[in-house]
Amino acid sequence: MLPDQFLPPNLYILPVNSAVVFPTLMAPIMVNVPRFVATVEEAISRQRFIGLLMIREGEVVDTTPCGELWEVGVVVRILKRLKLPDGSVNLLVQSVKRFKRQRIISEQPYIVVETGYLDDVIEQSTELDALTRSVIANVKKLAEVNPYFTDEMRLAMINAPGPGTVADLVAFALALPKKSAQEFLETLDVKQRFEMLIQHLKREQNLADIQRKINDDVNTKITTMQREYFLKEQLKSIKRELGVEEDGKEKSSRTFRERIESAGMPEEAKKIALEELEKFETLSEHSPDFNVTRTYLETLCSLPWSKETRDNLDLANARKILDEDHYGLEKVKERIIEFIAVRTLKTDPKGSIICLVGPPGVGKTSVGKSIARALGRKFFRFSLGGMRDEAEIKGHRRTYVGALPGKVIQGIKRAGSRNAVLMLDEIDKVGKSFQGDPASALLEALDPEQNHAFLDHYIDVPFDLSRVLFITTANSTSTIPSPLLDRMELIELPGYTLEEKEEIAIDFVIPRELDAHGLRSQHLKIERGAIRRMMLDYAREPGLRVLQQLVARICRKTATSVVEKKNGTRMQVVLKEELEKWLGPKRYYNEIAERIAFPGVAVGLAWTSLGGDILFIEATDVPGANNLKLTGQMGDVMSESAAIAWSYVKRKCTAELGLDREYFKNRDFHLHVPSGAIPKDGPSAGITMAISLYSLLSGRKSRQKIAMTGELSLVGKVLPIGGVKEKILAARRAGIVDVILPKLNEKDLTEVPDYAIKGLRLHFVSSMEEIFDIALDPAPSIIKKRPRGKIIRKKMRIRSRPLFA
């Protein structure tokens, strides 16, 4: 080490961002910043000494000021310089001594500082010798795993002129982090340096131990796997020579071959299965394709290529089963009886695709199980609601990880029969996304002309679905694509009448809920009048779910009472007068009388996906400028119907009531359909809106308990509408007595049960003029005789039986 008098008092400074070059060590340095390349050239032209100071944060750039550098660094002597084509230089330097920046002399064009050189502080003691030996011992241990601790390094440590040099050598070999290296450089007390080194050496030793353990574990596993592999191969050879036993793979191959031969596959499917089996036999058990091929063969062999159940063709037995499980649903039962009759005459008929459409809770899903039981077939159901991926129907290709067949093939596989009954629930709620259109994928499965060779992406061979009986369910057909709807036979389940719901509650709902809650008939009895009152005041929906929930609530309260023995063993009897005690306040009220207390209010009938419902239409006038305002979330078609009704009524009032242009000029007319949060559309409210507007202008109130439906033309013709049965049932549930219908809808009464229209007065009209005197009270000065509607009175016999909950 050179004495201080041979070192320059002022130094050119080269900022660095790399590891510290501790004194007595040599290291290469790359300089690529033009400003500091010039600094190097200037230092070489002088005494070849230059000071290295590390930058605190960031990278070294042309504008790096001296204030961003640490104050303590090392002075180095430039031994070699190599200029590179890109203008940078590569230096080989030897570190000489520590120094501290005293004062900045210049920053432009070169950084020049006044320096104060620093000497090591060495206090000879036994503790220092012990620390030195401890460091050397740790270095020897690390020499096995750390490539920097070479034999040359250990030799240099032995020949080092002092303990400070030993500490610097070890610190350089450890490649300390930037801040730790700077802290070590600034520490002049050699004893403290050794203490810092021991901490870093311990950390390196711990890391080395963990690394060694990981390597040992990996080597042990590899050795074990290789040993097991060789032993298994030797065992296979021994068993093969002795003919004792075949291994798992050979056994699987033999089993697959037997299953392929006995599955009754078509020739094309059998050929592909045998090709896959040959591939399976050549694959190693450790190959990624081994399990993929095995799963594919398992799927092919599990499909019922030739298995089918024998149909029960006894019509009387089928009727008995269908009647046991469901009350009503005559159209569905008739269609199944027809299917069995055709199956009796023709032994190889095509399958059928039936779509049951109706509101929730009418038994669409449960009827599928009854159909399968009546036919003696296997049954499988899956829901299409919310399905957005085409692969859910037609399967994933085997190139994907975790690929599976589609729902149709999975259903056939689980049913274990190629003539099973498959129920596709909620087909109207199929989604659509960037992953494909599941509804389009269903076209092939539900088309009788195509499904004899249905191609699933996973099995990739045609499968015959022509013997499958497909049953789909939907709440509405409006969201089902037309090509898909065209392939299905629609059977509508419009909802139950009060009489039907009453019988179903007695025969099915109440006994089932009693059993579900652990009750017996001696615990609870619900009177027939209470059931009827529940349907009118609490459960007006077309189906039975709400009614079932209400019965379940009564059963829970009864079960609590039985367990607590509040009433001993006395039977709980639910009377219609006590329903509020059991079920709380009423949900529905007969508000028709209150709503039509003023002119301008009329009652219409509407069809929804949940069944029929009544619809109030209100009209009023306010000061304005002869505008018609429509509110209540009316759709485009309904808004056009309102405009037609307004034009017709305005012309009629001008001609008959003497309302001139001045009367309309200063008024706005507002037509509103309550329940504004629910969108409404369709033309069937045309005559109701006309009656509402005419009632407002003429001052004649609408009659009580009368409702109407029909499309109105601009010249006053009443045109036919749809959903007649649902609307009549809704009118009956709401307590309506008179119903006005288009004359052309009279033919639709054949679909309405006799007991559903018992006591209703049905008025069939063909023009708007016929409706005014039927629907409105007479004017004070004109008393007209109310025309009598068609009164239909038909008897319905209901068996009397004890009522149990």
Task: Summarize this structure as a short list of keywords or feature phrases.
805 residues, Archaeosine Trna-guanine Transglycosylase, Chain: A, domain 4, 5-stranded parallel β-sheet, 5-stranded mixed β-barrel
Descriptive account of the structure:
The protein has 26 helices and 25 strands. It has six domains: 4-118, Roll (Archaeosine Trna-guanine Transglycosylase, Chain: A, domain 4), CATH 2.30.130.40; 125-177 and 188-244, no CATH class; 248-302, no CATH class; 315-492, Rossmann fold; 498-583, Helicase, Ruva Protein, domain 3 (Orthogonal Bundle); 592-791, Ribosomal Protein S5, domain 2, CATH 3.30.230. Strand 4 (72-83) and strand 5 form a beta hairpin. It is α/β, with parallel strands linked by helices. Residues 782-805 have low confidence and may be disordered. It has a five-stranded mixed β-barrel with strand order 1-3-4-5-6. It is elongated. Helix 3 (151-158) runs antiparallel to helix 4, helix 4 crosses helix 6 (190-242) and helix 17 packs across helix 18.
